[in-house]
Amino acid sequence: MRIAERIEAEALELAVLGVRDNGTELNMALKAEPGSAAGTFRYYAEALDKVAGEVAPTAADVLGLVQRAPVGVVAAIVPWNFPLMIGAWKLAPALAMGNSVVLKPAESASLSLLRLAEICADCGLPDGVLNVVTGSGAQTGAALAEHMDVDVMVFTGSGATGRRLLEASARSNLKRCYLELGGKSPNIVFADARDLDHAAKVSAMGIFRNSGQVCVAGSRLLVEASIHDEFVERLKAHAEALKVGDPLDLSSQIGAVNSEGQLAANLAHVVKAVAEGGEVVCGGDRILTETGGSYMAPTIVTGVRQQASLFQKEVFGPVLSVTPFETEDQALQLANATDYGLAAGVWTADLSRAHRCVARIRAGVVHVNTYGGADNTVPLGGVGQSGNGHDKSLHALDKYVDLKTAWIQL
Questions:
Q1: Fold of the CATH domain 2-181+387-409
Q2: Average pLDDT, whole number, for the chain?
């Protein structure tokens, strides 16, 4: 609880540290980084006396107890897009269950997590229980993955790195690995959606906030053909109205792309999309500013076919693919037509259709008549090549405990 209070007290300083690292717009960073992290520490502090063992329904002359024991040492590797928020998702439940943690931030975004380690020490966490270790993935990350004294590895990042962590686990001590590997999330808009302009505005922010650098971003827009042109025009208007600029300027709605390398990769995805038959209806290029920096205009590409790279591959940038559909069955087939399964969105006024879509979409999170946003009471995780395990909610605690059975003859 003291850690949560300190994070809140230093919220602006922590947010600015993160913005200087990764370029997230400050207004969003304040809520998503220290705001979320404080809430996460407080949630698991409040959960501690609600988590108990079990008494099994055994025979009358035997007492069966199921106890939760700390796993030991947890290694956590977190990405650069929301380091404090995602770091808290790993740290708070792991510490709450009695484990020690070694956390490696991304090379390009470590400042806020280094400060968090100091806050935790100031609040009374014993020395050595939390260690924040900087360095490259190839060296520091690999050392953690191979270490024989790490009992559980938790990771948010790319699929390629996730595979290497699983291989390292097999080579070392078979440590459990929980991986959150991103997505290519569908956002389905049916013609019966109540307010198309609201749906367009929320859908725009669902992909363009933080310059598209959000794992659950609604990066594949599927629109019923009868409203396709109208909806794209509404969406384009909202996208072009967004102010992209200095993330420390409170009037900026979209900040910077994380790096020059990421910006180049984003632009290359657009070039390939056009080569594969897509049409750029807005954005598609770099925004030049007086102060320099890596900025990209919110980009919408229509006519994206299922086989296209932009339909299948995660960009992790402000690039939205748009694909029309005719029927509900076709929409669901398209929604499930990638290797990923992290998040999804459905816009409809038909309650029965909403429930059918939630049931049939292969994803860990399905938003209905909204996109993005959820608190600590519900889990976040994916299926398929979006990974395994869950952050947030009481379910996250399961990653950080071993179950121990006591079988007592009475």
A1: Aldehyde Dehydrogenase; Chain A, domain 1 (3.40.605)
A2: 97
**DSSP label at residue 185:** -
Place of tokens 């980009």: 299
Pairing relationship of beta strands 73-77 and 365-368 according to DSSP bridges: unpaired
Question: pLDDT tens digits for 331-382?
Answer: 999 999 999 999 999 999 999 999 999 999 999 999 999 999 889 999 999 9
Q: Which residues contact 219 (CB under 8 A, 6 or more apart)?
A: 183, 184, 185, 207, 212, 314, 315, 319, 320, 321
Q: What does the radius of gyration of the chain's CA atoms come to, in whole angstroms?
A: 22
Q: What angle do CA 325, 196, 252 make, to 5 degrees?
A: 110
Q: Which two tokens stand for residue 69?
A: 């024991």
Superfamily for the 186-368 domain: Aldehyde Dehydrogenase; Chain A, domain 2 (3.40.309.10)
- Assigned token pair, 344: 């999804």
pLDDT surpassing 80 at residue 291: no
Secondary structure (3-state) at 301: strand
**CA–CA dist 361, 365 (Å, integer):** 9
- CA distances for 402 relative to 68, 133, 277, 382, angstroms: 6, 25, 51, 22
CA distance readout (Å), 262 to 108, 175, 247, 286, 362: 12, 31, 17, 12, 28
Q: Show which residues are catalytic.
A: 180
